[in-house]
Amino acid sequence: MKKVISSALIVFVSWCLTAPTFGQGQGISLNKIIGKVDNYYVLRSDLEESSQSYVGQNQTPPAKCQLLESLIINKMMLAKAEIDSVVVEEKIVDSELDSRMQYMVQQFGSDKNIVEAYGKSLEMLKSELRTQVKDQKIVQKMQQKITTDVKVTPRDVRKFYDGIPKDSLPYIPAEVEVGQIVRFAKPTKEQKEVLREKLLDIKKRVENGEDFAKLAKENSEDVGSAEKGGDLGFAKRGMMVAPFEGAALRLKPNQISDVVESDFGLHLIQLLEIRGAEYHARHVLLRPDYNRLDLTAPTRYLDSLRNLIQIDSLKFDKAAHDYSEDKNTADAGGLLRDAQSGSSRMAMDGSMEYAMFQMLDTMKVGSISAPLPYRTEDGKSSVRLLYFKSKVAPHAADFTKDFEKLQTIVLQNKKNRAIDDWFKKSIADVYITVDPEFHSCRIFGTTQGSAASLSGGSN
């Protein structure tokens, strides 16, 4: 039997990395309070959503007691952060909130679809999401504070590996190295002209006395800033994409730009203020309908590149570096990396992007796919080539071959112990209650009610 290396606290780390969800019309009877840490509550819906987050990633959820413990840990982090005055800057929360809202728009297609799906206004959804985002950021900051001095040496990894019985070594699933070359579908001149004319009309209306902020709120497709009248706040030079920043800094305060095109779409920019190395601007953003873009040109482009690579006139990594429009992978020769470990070896299992998994399953190592339609994380229509660079068969963990993974396990185990020690020292600083339904759970390694800081009672 293969050994499973895990901890209740690993669920805590997973919570920090999981995108938040919104409750949809849940009444109080369906959202019972099942735990409390000072003034922070754990709801039954929190427990269900935590379990569903694993199902959504094709993983088996931990036991209910383990999930509950991890949720209480999260609330204790928040309570202790309040006691210790650990805060997260609002602009960090704003940035993450904007990113999450943009992602939702890409997934649902429009603001209207989001409102219909949840039965709530965008303002209400943003308010709920903001609370979740802020809590996650605070918990992450507390975790970093607790584990900042945790380090792992090669000797630690060797000791861990040698301590595992050979018949219980962790099982490593099949892993692959994959490269990609991406080319975006471009909007036609006609599509851009329609957006350009709309922005020029907005500019004219502002010049005739209408409020820029009101028009931005009504028209801008940058969901995060639209609710604030297009206001982007102060930005340091170099933070924004070059076309936007260049246009903004050529303006005088309160002046409005001509239409500016960037990777995000078409902008109408108003500079509000320059303060040292920072500038304050707002904008209206319009984007083409990515679902209607023609993939013919990027498909032909990649087909030509593929032919050159196959006859060995061009190496894949060189082609990716010079011609891929995916900035995240081009500099690495197109090589994709695991989001959590940063390793170029990715598990070929249910955690992999489904379309990629399906394609690799039909390819041989060393081969390159035909051009494939692809939707980027930020919603852009594109085409890509996949290069099946290498594959490692499923195997029991090997110290040399899997050192990186073993090191990650050892580091996480050390961090879990550091957090566990922190809880044992800090548990007396907060008041924790758990619903009688879960009294059989051994929260923090002790049966509910047996520790002085734990008390039963219904909520």
Overview of this structure, please?
The relative contact order is 0.14. The protein is globular, with a radius of gyration of 26 Å. The longest helix has 26 residues, at 122-147. The chain is an alpha+beta fold and 459 residues long. The chain is built from 16 helices and 14 strands. It has three domains: 8-154 and 399-455, Porin chaperone SurA, peptide-binding domain (Triger factor/SurA peptide-binding fold, Orthogonal Bundle); 174-186 and 293-393, Chitinase A, domain 3 (Roll), CATH 3.10.50.40; 189-287, Chitinase A, domain 3 (Roll).
User: SSE string, helix = H, strand = E?
Assistant: HEEHHHHHHEEHHHEHEEEHHHEHEEEHEE
Reported by name, the CATH topology of the largest domain is Triger factor/SurA peptide-binding fold
- What's the CATH H-level homologous superfamily of the largest domain? Porin chaperone SurA, peptide-binding domain
Radius of gyration: 26 Å
Signal peptide: 1-19
InterPro entries: OMP_Chaperone_SurA, PPIase_dom_sf, PPIase_PpiC, PPIase_PpiC_CS, Trigger_fact/SurA_dom_sf
Domain PpiC: 173-273, 276-387
EC number: 5.2.1.8
